[in-house]
Amino acid sequence: MRDVTEVGDEKMAEKTRERGRPRGFDANAALDRAVEVFWRRGYEGASLSDLTEAMGINRPSLYAAYGNKEELFRRAVARYAEADMAYAREALAEPTAYQVIARFLRANADALTRTDRPPGCLSIQGGLSDGSDGGSVAQFLAASRLAGERALAERLVRAVDEGDLPTGTDPVALARYVMVVSEGNAVHAAAGADRAGLHATVDIALRAVPGNPQGAG
Amino acid sequence: MRDVTEVGDEKMAEKTRERGRPRGFDANAALDRAVEVFWRRGYEGASLSDLTEAMGINRPSLYAAYGNKEELFRRAVARYAEADMAYAREALAEPTAYQVIARFLRANADALTRTDRPPGCLSIQGGLSDGSDGGSVAQFLAASRLAGERALAERLVRAVDEGDLPTGTDPVALARYVMVVSEGNAVHAAAGADRAGLHATVDIALRAVPGNPQGAG
DNA sequence: CTATTTCTGTATCGATCGGTACGCAATAGG
DNA sequence: CCTATTGCGTACCGATCGATACAGAAATAG
Protein backbone atom coordinates (compact mmCIF):
# COMPACT_ATOMS: atom_id res chain seq x y z
CA MET A 1 0.00 0.00 0.00
CA ARG A 2 1.52 3.23 -1.09
CA ASP A 3 0.45 6.59 0.16
CA VAL A 4 -0.49 8.63 -2.87
CA THR A 5 -2.29 11.41 -1.07
CA GLU A 6 0.67 13.75 -0.96
CA VAL A 7 0.09 15.20 -4.41
CA GLY A 8 -1.47 18.56 -3.85
CA ASP A 9 -0.36 18.80 -0.22
CA GLU A 10 1.93 21.70 -0.92
CA LYS A 11 0.68 23.41 2.23
CA MET A 12 2.68 21.05 4.44
CA ALA A 13 5.51 20.64 1.97
CA GLU A 14 7.62 23.21 3.76
CA LYS A 15 7.05 21.89 7.26
CA THR A 16 7.46 18.15 6.87
CA ARG A 17 10.87 17.55 5.36
CA GLU A 18 10.82 14.09 3.83
CA ARG A 19 13.67 11.67 3.98
CA GLY A 20 15.17 9.95 0.98
CA ARG A 21 15.80 11.19 -2.50
CA PRO A 22 13.58 14.12 -3.43
CA ARG A 23 11.25 13.88 -6.41
CA GLY A 24 12.85 15.14 -9.56
CA PHE A 25 9.70 16.56 -11.17
CA ASP A 26 6.77 18.82 -10.32
CA ALA A 27 3.84 16.50 -9.68
CA ASN A 28 1.24 19.16 -10.36
CA ALA A 29 2.88 20.33 -13.57
CA ALA A 30 3.09 16.73 -14.72
CA LEU A 31 -0.58 16.31 -13.90
CA ASP A 32 -1.38 19.26 -16.14
CA ARG A 33 0.34 17.47 -18.99
CA ALA A 34 -1.68 14.36 -18.24
CA VAL A 35 -4.88 16.41 -18.40
CA GLU A 36 -4.00 17.44 -21.94
CA VAL A 37 -3.27 13.90 -23.04
CA PHE A 38 -6.51 12.49 -21.61
CA TRP A 39 -8.41 15.44 -23.04
CA ARG A 40 -7.11 14.85 -26.54
CA ARG A 41 -7.07 11.06 -26.66
CA GLY A 42 -9.64 9.95 -24.11
CA TYR A 43 -9.01 7.58 -21.23
CA GLU A 44 -8.63 4.43 -23.26
CA GLY A 45 -6.88 6.13 -26.15
CA ALA A 46 -4.20 7.57 -23.87
CA SER A 47 -1.48 4.97 -23.44
CA LEU A 48 1.03 5.00 -20.63
CA SER A 49 3.71 5.76 -23.21
CA ASP A 50 1.73 8.83 -24.33
CA LEU A 51 1.35 9.91 -20.74
CA THR A 52 4.89 9.39 -19.54
CA GLU A 53 6.30 11.06 -22.64
CA ALA A 54 4.10 14.12 -22.20
CA MET A 55 4.70 14.24 -18.47
CA GLY A 56 8.46 13.85 -18.89
CA ILE A 57 8.71 11.03 -16.37
CA ASN A 58 9.22 7.27 -16.40
CA ARG A 59 6.61 4.68 -15.82
CA PRO A 60 7.60 3.72 -12.25
CA SER A 61 7.62 7.40 -11.26
CA LEU A 62 4.07 7.70 -12.54
CA TYR A 63 2.94 4.69 -10.55
CA ALA A 64 4.74 5.82 -7.43
CA ALA A 65 3.18 9.27 -7.61
CA TYR A 66 -0.35 8.50 -8.75
CA GLY A 67 -1.06 4.80 -8.18
CA ASN A 68 -2.20 3.62 -11.58
CA LYS A 69 -3.72 4.86 -14.82
CA GLU A 70 -7.27 5.19 -13.53
CA GLU A 71 -6.13 6.99 -10.38
CA LEU A 72 -4.09 9.36 -12.53
CA PHE A 73 -7.16 9.96 -14.66
CA ARG A 74 -9.34 10.75 -11.66
CA ARG A 75 -6.73 13.20 -10.41
CA ALA A 76 -6.54 14.73 -13.85
CA VAL A 77 -10.30 15.18 -13.94
CA ALA A 78 -10.26 16.71 -10.48
CA ARG A 79 -7.58 19.15 -11.53
CA TYR A 80 -9.47 19.90 -14.72
CA ALA A 81 -12.64 20.60 -12.77
CA GLU A 82 -10.78 22.94 -10.47
CA ALA A 83 -8.78 24.83 -13.09
CA ASP A 84 -10.62 24.64 -16.39
CA MET A 85 -14.16 24.67 -15.03
CA ALA A 86 -13.73 27.61 -12.69
CA TYR A 87 -15.93 29.68 -15.00
CA ALA A 88 -18.87 27.45 -14.13
CA ARG A 89 -18.65 28.25 -10.43
CA GLU A 90 -18.23 31.92 -11.21
CA ALA A 91 -21.34 31.87 -13.36
CA LEU A 92 -23.39 30.58 -10.43
CA ALA A 93 -22.64 33.84 -8.61
CA GLU A 94 -24.53 35.95 -11.14
CA PRO A 95 -27.57 37.68 -9.64
CA THR A 96 -30.35 36.28 -11.82
CA ALA A 97 -31.10 32.88 -13.30
CA TYR A 98 -30.88 34.19 -16.83
CA GLN A 99 -27.56 35.84 -16.16
CA VAL A 100 -26.26 32.67 -14.54
CA ILE A 101 -27.23 30.59 -17.57
CA ALA A 102 -26.09 33.12 -20.15
CA ARG A 103 -22.74 33.60 -18.53
CA PHE A 104 -22.24 29.89 -18.13
CA LEU A 105 -23.05 29.09 -21.74
CA ARG A 106 -20.94 31.97 -23.06
CA ALA A 107 -17.93 31.06 -20.96
CA ASN A 108 -18.46 27.43 -21.85
CA ALA A 109 -18.45 28.21 -25.57
CA ASP A 110 -15.20 30.11 -25.10
CA ALA A 111 -13.63 27.36 -23.00
CA LEU A 112 -14.54 24.72 -25.58
CA THR A 113 -12.65 26.61 -28.28
CA ARG A 114 -9.56 27.88 -26.50
CA THR A 115 -6.67 27.66 -28.92
CA ASP A 116 -4.20 26.86 -26.16
CA ARG A 117 -6.21 23.85 -25.08
CA PRO A 118 -7.61 20.76 -26.77
CA PRO A 119 -11.04 21.34 -28.29
CA GLY A 120 -14.13 20.23 -26.41
CA CYS A 121 -14.22 19.25 -22.78
CA LEU A 122 -12.41 16.55 -20.86
CA SER A 123 -15.48 15.17 -19.11
CA ILE A 124 -16.89 14.22 -22.50
CA GLN A 125 -13.72 13.49 -24.45
CA GLY A 126 -12.58 11.30 -21.61
CA GLY A 127 -14.98 8.60 -22.64
CA LEU A 128 -18.70 7.96 -22.92
CA SER A 129 -18.87 4.26 -23.66
CA ASP A 130 -18.23 1.20 -21.57
CA GLY A 131 -14.67 0.40 -22.45
CA SER A 132 -12.69 -2.65 -21.51
CA ASP A 133 -13.00 -1.67 -17.85
CA GLY A 134 -16.75 -2.15 -17.77
CA GLY A 135 -17.68 1.51 -17.84
CA SER A 136 -16.23 2.65 -14.53
CA VAL A 137 -14.52 5.60 -16.21
CA ALA A 138 -17.65 6.54 -18.16
CA GLN A 139 -19.68 6.35 -14.96
CA PHE A 140 -17.18 8.45 -13.10
CA LEU A 141 -17.33 11.13 -15.78
CA ALA A 142 -21.12 10.98 -15.91
CA ALA A 143 -21.25 11.49 -12.15
CA SER A 144 -18.86 14.40 -12.50
CA ARG A 145 -21.08 16.06 -15.11
CA LEU A 146 -24.16 15.34 -13.04
CA ALA A 147 -22.59 17.13 -10.09
CA GLY A 148 -22.35 20.27 -12.17
CA GLU A 149 -25.92 19.83 -13.30
CA ARG A 150 -27.07 19.51 -9.72
CA ALA A 151 -25.17 22.61 -8.65
CA LEU A 152 -26.89 24.58 -11.38
CA ALA A 153 -30.27 23.08 -10.45
CA GLU A 154 -29.82 24.18 -6.84
CA ARG A 155 -28.95 27.67 -7.98
CA LEU A 156 -32.12 27.71 -10.10
CA VAL A 157 -34.20 26.45 -7.19
CA ARG A 158 -33.00 29.48 -5.30
CA ALA A 159 -33.92 31.61 -8.30
CA VAL A 160 -37.46 30.27 -8.18
CA ASP A 161 -37.64 30.99 -4.46
CA GLU A 162 -36.45 34.53 -5.06
CA GLY A 163 -39.11 35.04 -7.71
CA ASP A 164 -36.37 35.29 -10.27
CA LEU A 165 -37.87 32.52 -12.39
CA PRO A 166 -41.59 32.30 -13.19
CA THR A 167 -43.70 30.22 -10.82
CA GLY A 168 -44.11 26.72 -12.15
CA THR A 169 -40.65 26.69 -13.70
CA ASP A 170 -38.97 23.32 -13.22
CA PRO A 171 -35.44 24.21 -12.14
CA VAL A 172 -34.18 20.64 -12.53
CA ALA A 173 -35.43 20.41 -16.10
CA LEU A 174 -34.04 23.83 -16.93
CA ALA A 175 -30.65 22.91 -15.50
CA ARG A 176 -30.64 19.72 -17.53
CA TYR A 177 -31.50 21.68 -20.66
CA VAL A 178 -28.59 24.04 -20.07
CA MET A 179 -26.22 21.12 -19.60
CA VAL A 180 -27.56 19.46 -22.73
CA VAL A 181 -26.73 22.59 -24.72
CA SER A 182 -23.32 22.70 -23.09
CA GLU A 183 -22.59 19.06 -23.84
CA GLY A 184 -23.91 19.27 -27.37
CA ASN A 185 -21.65 22.24 -27.97
CA ALA A 186 -18.78 20.21 -26.55
CA VAL A 187 -19.46 17.50 -29.11
CA HIS A 188 -19.50 20.09 -31.86
CA ALA A 189 -16.33 21.74 -30.60
CA ALA A 190 -14.54 18.40 -30.54
CA ALA A 191 -15.57 17.98 -34.17
CA GLY A 192 -13.93 21.27 -35.05
CA ALA A 193 -16.75 23.80 -34.76
CA ASP A 194 -15.48 27.35 -34.32
CA ARG A 195 -16.24 29.73 -31.49
CA ALA A 196 -18.69 31.86 -33.48
CA GLY A 197 -20.77 28.83 -34.35
CA LEU A 198 -21.02 27.81 -30.71
CA HIS A 199 -22.12 31.30 -29.70
CA ALA A 200 -24.71 31.30 -32.47
CA THR A 201 -26.12 28.15 -30.89
CA VAL A 202 -26.10 29.82 -27.49
CA ASP A 203 -27.97 32.78 -29.01
CA ILE A 204 -30.79 30.44 -29.97
CA ALA A 205 -30.63 28.33 -26.83
CA LEU A 206 -31.04 31.36 -24.59
CA ARG A 207 -34.37 32.16 -26.22
CA ALA A 208 -35.83 29.19 -24.36
CA VAL A 209 -34.69 30.47 -20.98
CA PRO A 210 -37.22 32.37 -18.86
CA GLY A 211 -36.10 35.93 -18.19
CA ASN A 212 -34.27 36.39 -21.47
CA PRO A 213 -34.30 39.85 -23.06
CA GLN A 214 -36.70 38.70 -25.82
CA GLY A 215 -39.21 37.79 -23.14
CA ALA A 216 -39.84 34.20 -24.16
CA GLY A 217 -40.77 31.42 -21.75
CA MET B 1 -6.86 -7.84 -52.74
CA ARG B 2 -10.10 -9.29 -51.61
CA ASP B 3 -13.45 -8.18 -52.89
CA VAL B 4 -15.47 -7.05 -49.91
CA THR B 5 -18.20 -5.25 -51.79
CA GLU B 6 -20.57 -8.18 -51.89
CA VAL B 7 -22.06 -7.50 -48.48
CA GLY B 8 -25.42 -5.95 -49.09
CA ASP B 9 -25.60 -7.07 -52.72
CA GLU B 10 -28.49 -9.38 -52.03
CA LYS B 11 -30.19 -8.15 -55.20
CA MET B 12 -27.80 -10.13 -57.41
CA ALA B 13 -27.39 -12.96 -54.94
CA GLU B 14 -29.90 -15.10 -56.80
CA LYS B 15 -28.54 -14.46 -60.26
CA THR B 16 -24.79 -14.83 -59.82
CA ARG B 17 -24.17 -18.25 -58.34
CA GLU B 18 -20.74 -18.19 -56.74
CA ARG B 19 -18.30 -21.03 -56.81
CA GLY B 20 -16.59 -22.47 -53.79
CA ARG B 21 -17.82 -23.11 -50.28
CA PRO B 22 -20.78 -20.90 -49.38
CA ARG B 23 -20.60 -18.57 -46.41
CA GLY B 24 -21.84 -20.17 -43.26
CA PHE B 25 -23.39 -17.05 -41.69
CA ASP B 26 -25.68 -14.16 -42.58
CA ALA B 27 -23.38 -11.21 -43.21
CA ASN B 28 -26.07 -8.62 -42.56
CA ALA B 29 -27.26 -10.26 -39.37
CA ALA B 30 -23.68 -10.43 -38.16
CA LEU B 31 -23.28 -6.76 -39.02
CA ASP B 32 -26.26 -5.95 -36.81
CA ARG B 33 -24.49 -7.64 -33.93
CA ALA B 34 -21.39 -5.60 -34.67
CA VAL B 35 -23.46 -2.41 -34.53
CA GLU B 36 -24.53 -3.27 -31.01
CA VAL B 37 -21.00 -3.98 -29.87
CA PHE B 38 -19.59 -0.73 -31.30
CA TRP B 39 -22.56 1.17 -29.91
CA ARG B 40 -22.01 -0.11 -26.40
CA ARG B 41 -18.21 -0.13 -26.24
CA GLY B 42 -17.10 2.43 -28.81
CA TYR B 43 -14.69 1.78 -31.65
CA GLU B 44 -11.57 1.43 -29.58
CA GLY B 45 -13.30 -0.30 -26.70
CA ALA B 46 -14.69 -3.00 -28.97
CA SER B 47 -12.08 -5.72 -29.33
CA LEU B 48 -12.08 -8.26 -32.12
CA SER B 49 -12.85 -10.90 -29.53
CA ASP B 50 -15.93 -8.94 -28.47
CA LEU B 51 -16.99 -8.58 -32.08
CA THR B 52 -16.42 -12.14 -33.24
CA GLU B 53 -18.11 -13.53 -30.16
CA ALA B 54 -21.20 -11.36 -30.65
CA MET B 55 -21.26 -11.99 -34.38
CA GLY B 56 -20.86 -15.72 -33.93
CA ILE B 57 -17.99 -16.00 -36.39
CA ASN B 58 -14.24 -16.50 -36.33
CA ARG B 59 -11.65 -13.88 -36.91
CA PRO B 60 -10.63 -14.90 -40.43
CA SER B 61 -14.28 -14.93 -41.49
CA LEU B 62 -14.63 -11.39 -40.24
CA TYR B 63 -11.59 -10.24 -42.17
CA ALA B 64 -12.67 -12.07 -45.31
CA ALA B 65 -16.13 -10.52 -45.18
CA TYR B 66 -15.39 -6.97 -44.06
CA GLY B 67 -11.70 -6.27 -44.60
CA ASN B 68 -10.55 -5.08 -41.20
CA LYS B 69 -11.84 -3.55 -37.99
CA GLU B 70 -12.19 -0.01 -39.30
CA GLU B 71 -13.96 -1.19 -42.47
CA LEU B 72 -16.33 -3.20 -40.33
CA PHE B 73 -16.98 -0.13 -38.23
CA ARG B 74 -17.74 2.03 -41.26
CA ARG B 75 -20.17 -0.59 -42.53
CA ALA B 76 -21.75 -0.78 -39.09
CA VAL B 77 -22.20 2.99 -39.02
CA ALA B 78 -23.72 2.91 -42.50
CA ARG B 79 -26.14 0.22 -41.46
CA TYR B 80 -26.95 2.14 -38.28
CA ALA B 81 -27.63 5.29 -40.28
CA GLU B 82 -29.94 3.40 -42.56
CA ALA B 83 -31.85 1.42 -39.96
CA ASP B 84 -31.70 3.28 -36.66
CA MET B 85 -31.74 6.81 -38.05
CA ALA B 86 -34.67 6.36 -40.40
CA TYR B 87 -36.76 8.56 -38.13
CA ALA B 88 -34.54 11.52 -39.00
CA ARG B 89 -35.30 11.27 -42.70
CA GLU B 90 -38.97 10.83 -41.94
CA ALA B 91 -38.97 13.95 -39.81
CA LEU B 92 -37.69 16.00 -42.75
CA ALA B 93 -40.90 15.23 -44.57
CA GLU B 94 -43.05 17.13 -42.07
CA PRO B 95 -44.78 20.14 -43.59
CA THR B 96 -43.42 22.95 -41.43
CA ALA B 97 -40.03 23.72 -39.93
CA TYR B 98 -41.36 23.52 -36.41
CA GLN B 99 -42.98 20.18 -37.06
CA VAL B 100 -39.79 18.89 -38.65
CA ILE B 101 -37.76 19.90 -35.62
CA ALA B 102 -40.29 18.75 -33.05
CA ARG B 103 -40.75 15.38 -34.66
CA PHE B 104 -37.02 14.90 -35.02
CA LEU B 105 -36.26 15.75 -31.41
CA ARG B 106 -39.14 13.64 -30.11
CA ALA B 107 -38.19 10.61 -32.18
CA ASN B 108 -34.58 11.18 -31.25
CA ALA B 109 -35.39 11.18 -27.54
CA ASP B 110 -37.26 7.91 -28.02
CA ALA B 111 -34.49 6.34 -30.08
CA LEU B 112 -31.87 7.29 -27.48
CA THR B 113 -33.77 5.41 -24.79
CA ARG B 114 -35.02 2.29 -26.56
CA THR B 115 -34.82 -0.57 -24.11
CA ASP B 116 -34.00 -3.07 -26.85
CA ARG B 117 -30.96 -1.06 -27.93
CA PRO B 118 -27.91 0.37 -26.22
CA PRO B 119 -28.52 3.81 -24.73
CA GLY B 120 -27.39 6.88 -26.62
CA CYS B 121 -26.38 6.95 -30.24
CA LEU B 122 -23.65 5.15 -32.13
CA SER B 123 -22.28 8.21 -33.89
CA ILE B 124 -21.38 9.65 -30.50
CA GLN B 125 -20.65 6.49 -28.52
CA GLY B 126 -18.42 5.34 -31.35
CA GLY B 127 -15.75 7.76 -30.28
CA LEU B 128 -15.12 11.50 -30.05
CA SER B 129 -11.44 11.69 -29.29
CA ASP B 130 -8.35 11.04 -31.34
CA GLY B 131 -7.57 7.49 -30.42
CA SER B 132 -4.49 5.51 -31.29
CA ASP B 133 -5.42 5.79 -34.97
CA GLY B 134 -4.96 9.54 -35.09
CA GLY B 135 -8.62 10.46 -35.06
CA SER B 136 -9.73 8.97 -38.37
CA VAL B 137 -12.68 7.27 -36.70
CA ALA B 138 -13.65 10.41 -34.80
CA GLN B 139 -13.44 12.43 -38.00
CA PHE B 140 -15.53 9.89 -39.85
CA LEU B 141 -18.24 10.05 -37.20
CA ALA B 142 -18.10 13.84 -37.11
CA ALA B 143 -18.58 13.93 -40.86
CA SER B 144 -21.48 11.55 -40.51
CA ARG B 145 -23.17 13.78 -37.94
CA LEU B 146 -22.45 16.85 -40.03
CA ALA B 147 -24.22 15.25 -42.99
CA GLY B 148 -27.38 15.02 -40.93
CA GLU B 149 -26.97 18.59 -39.80
CA ARG B 150 -26.62 19.73 -43.40
CA ALA B 151 -29.71 17.81 -44.48
CA LEU B 152 -31.69 19.54 -41.77
CA ALA B 153 -30.21 22.91 -42.71
CA GLU B 154 -31.28 22.45 -46.31
CA ARG B 155 -34.77 21.57 -45.19
CA LEU B 156 -34.85 24.74 -43.10
CA VAL B 157 -33.58 26.81 -46.01
CA ARG B 158 -36.59 25.59 -47.91
CA ALA B 159 -38.75 26.52 -44.94
CA VAL B 160 -37.41 30.06 -45.06
CA ASP B 161 -38.12 30.21 -48.79
CA GLU B 162 -41.64 29.01 -48.21
CA GLY B 163 -42.19 31.68 -45.59
CA ASP B 164 -42.44 28.96 -43.01
CA LEU B 165 -39.68 30.49 -40.88
CA PRO B 166 -39.50 34.22 -40.10
CA THR B 167 -37.43 36.32 -42.48
CA GLY B 168 -33.93 36.75 -41.12
CA THR B 169 -33.88 33.31 -39.54
CA ASP B 170 -30.51 31.63 -39.99
CA PRO B 171 -31.35 28.08 -41.05
CA VAL B 172 -27.80 26.85 -40.64
CA ALA B 173 -27.59 28.14 -37.08
CA LEU B 174 -31.01 26.72 -36.26
CA ALA B 175 -30.06 23.32 -37.66
CA ARG B 176 -26.89 23.35 -35.61
CA TYR B 177 -28.89 24.22 -32.49
CA VAL B 178 -31.22 21.30 -33.08
CA MET B 179 -28.30 18.93 -33.52
CA VAL B 180 -26.67 20.30 -30.38
CA VAL B 181 -29.80 19.47 -28.40
CA SER B 182 -29.88 16.04 -30.01
CA GLU B 183 -26.23 15.34 -29.23
CA GLY B 184 -26.48 16.70 -25.72
CA ASN B 185 -29.44 14.43 -25.13
CA ALA B 186 -27.39 11.55 -26.51
CA VAL B 187 -24.71 12.27 -23.93
CA HIS B 188 -27.32 12.31 -21.20
CA ALA B 189 -28.93 9.12 -22.47
CA ALA B 190 -25.58 7.35 -22.49
CA ALA B 191 -25.21 8.41 -18.86
CA GLY B 192 -28.50 6.75 -17.99
CA ALA B 193 -31.05 9.57 -18.31
CA ASP B 194 -34.57 8.27 -18.77
CA ARG B 195 -36.93 9.00 -21.62
CA ALA B 196 -39.09 11.45 -19.67
CA GLY B 197 -36.08 13.54 -18.79
CA LEU B 198 -35.04 13.77 -22.42
CA HIS B 199 -38.52 14.85 -23.46
CA ALA B 200 -38.55 17.47 -20.72
CA THR B 201 -35.40 18.88 -22.27
CA VAL B 202 -37.06 18.83 -25.69
CA ASP B 203 -40.01 20.70 -24.20
CA ILE B 204 -37.71 23.54 -23.25
CA ALA B 205 -35.59 23.37 -26.37
CA LEU B 206 -38.59 23.74 -28.63
CA ARG B 207 -39.42 27.07 -27.03
CA ALA B 208 -36.46 28.55 -28.87
CA VAL B 209 -37.71 27.38 -32.26
CA PRO B 210 -39.61 29.88 -34.41
CA GLY B 211 -43.14 28.75 -35.10
CA ASN B 212 -43.61 26.95 -31.80
CA PRO B 213 -47.08 26.97 -30.21
CA GLN B 214 -45.93 29.37 -27.46
CA GLY B 215 -45.02 31.87 -30.14
CA ALA B 216 -41.44 32.53 -29.10
CA GLY B 217 -38.66 33.45 -31.51
C1' DC C 1 -14.51 -38.76 -60.27
C1' DT C 2 -10.83 -34.41 -60.45
C1' DA C 3 -9.79 -29.68 -60.35
C1' DT C 4 -10.81 -25.29 -58.69
C1' DT C 5 -12.54 -22.02 -55.64
C1' DT C 6 -13.96 -20.23 -51.31
C1' DC C 7 -15.03 -20.44 -46.51
C1' DT C 8 -13.92 -22.19 -41.65
C1' DG C 9 -11.14 -23.22 -37.54
C1' DT C 10 -6.81 -23.54 -35.16
C1' DA C 11 -2.94 -21.72 -33.89
C1' DT C 12 -0.12 -18.05 -34.08
C1' DC C 13 2.22 -13.61 -35.46
C1' DG C 14 4.68 -9.14 -33.85
C1' DA C 15 3.28 -5.07 -31.41
C1' DT C 16 1.53 -2.88 -27.74
C1' DC C 17 -1.13 -2.82 -23.57
C1' DG C 18 -1.01 -1.68 -18.28
C1' DG C 19 1.93 -2.71 -14.64
C1' DT C 20 6.58 -4.05 -11.95
C1' DA C 21 11.20 -6.15 -10.14
C1' DC C 22 15.33 -4.62 -9.28
C1' DG C 23 19.58 -2.10 -8.95
C1' DC C 24 21.49 2.47 -8.76
C1' DA C 25 21.34 7.48 -7.43
C1' DA C 26 20.39 10.96 -4.15
C1' DT C 27 18.97 12.76 -0.02
C1' DA C 28 18.55 12.83 5.56
C1' DG C 29 19.80 11.29 10.19
C1' DG C 30 23.31 9.43 12.92
C1' DC D 1 31.80 7.99 7.21
C1' DC D 2 27.41 4.51 7.44
C1' DT D 3 22.57 3.35 7.30
C1' DA D 4 17.91 4.14 6.04
C1' DT D 5 14.73 5.79 2.90
C1' DT D 6 12.98 7.22 -1.32
C1' DG D 7 13.00 8.41 -6.37
C1' DC D 8 14.88 7.15 -10.96
C1' DG D 9 15.86 4.17 -15.07
C1' DT D 10 16.27 -0.11 -17.38
C1' DA D 11 14.53 -4.00 -18.65
C1' DC D 12 10.96 -6.88 -18.33
C1' DC D 13 6.31 -9.30 -17.10
C1' DG D 14 1.87 -11.74 -18.73
C1' DA D 15 -2.13 -10.39 -21.26
C1' DT D 16 -4.28 -8.68 -24.99
C1' DC D 17 -4.30 -6.04 -29.17
C1' DG D 18 -5.38 -6.31 -34.47
C1' DA D 19 -4.30 -9.23 -38.07
C1' DT D 20 -2.82 -13.88 -40.67
C1' DA D 21 -0.71 -18.52 -42.36
C1' DC D 22 -2.16 -22.65 -43.16
C1' DA D 23 -4.68 -26.84 -43.64
C1' DG D 24 -8.92 -29.00 -44.05
C1' DA D 25 -13.95 -28.71 -45.33
C1' DA D 26 -17.60 -27.70 -48.58
C1' DA D 27 -19.31 -26.13 -52.55
C1' DT D 28 -19.30 -25.75 -58.21
C1' DA D 29 -17.52 -26.89 -63.01
C1' DG D 30 -16.06 -30.10 -66.00
In short:
Helices cover 62% and strands 0% of the residues of chain A. Chain A is an all-alpha fold.
Written description of the protein model:
- Two copies of one chain form a homodimer.
- In chain A, 62% of the residues lie in helices and 0% in strands.
- Chain A has helices at residues 27-45, 48-55, 59-66, 69-83, 86-92, 97-112, 122-125, 136-161, 171-190, 195-206.
- The first copy, chain A, is elongated.
- With 217 residues, chain A is mostly helical.
- The longest helix of chain A is centred in the last third of the chain and has 26 residues, at 136-161.
- The first copy, chain A, has ten helices and no strands.
- In chain A, helix 5 packs antiparallel against helix 6 (97-112) and helix 9 packs antiparallel against helix 10 (195-206).
- Chain A has two domains: 27-81, Arc Repressor Mutant, subunit A (Orthogonal Bundle); 85-206, Tetracycline Repressor, domain 2 (Orthogonal Bundle).
- Chain A binds a DNA duplex (30 and 30 nucleotides) through residues 17-24, 47-49, 57-61, 63-65, 68-69, 132.
Features:
disordered N terminus, Arc Repressor Mutant, subunit A, 10 helices, Tetracycline Repressor, domain 2, 0% strand, homodimer, 217 residues, mainly alpha, DNA-binding
Task: Please estimate the helix content of chain A.
Answer: 55-70%
CATH topology of the largest domain in chain A: Tetracycline Repressor, domain 2
Main CATH class of the largest domain in chain A: Mainly Alpha
DSSP strand tally of chain A: 0
- Looking at the overall shape, the CATH architecture of the largest domain in chain A is Orthogonal Bundle
SS-derived structural category of chain A: mainly alpha
SSE arrangement of chain A, N to C:
HHHHHHHHHH
N→C terminal distance of chain A: 56 Å
Assembly classification:
homodimer
Rg calculated over all Cα atoms of chain A: 20 Å
Count of individual helical segments of chain A? 10
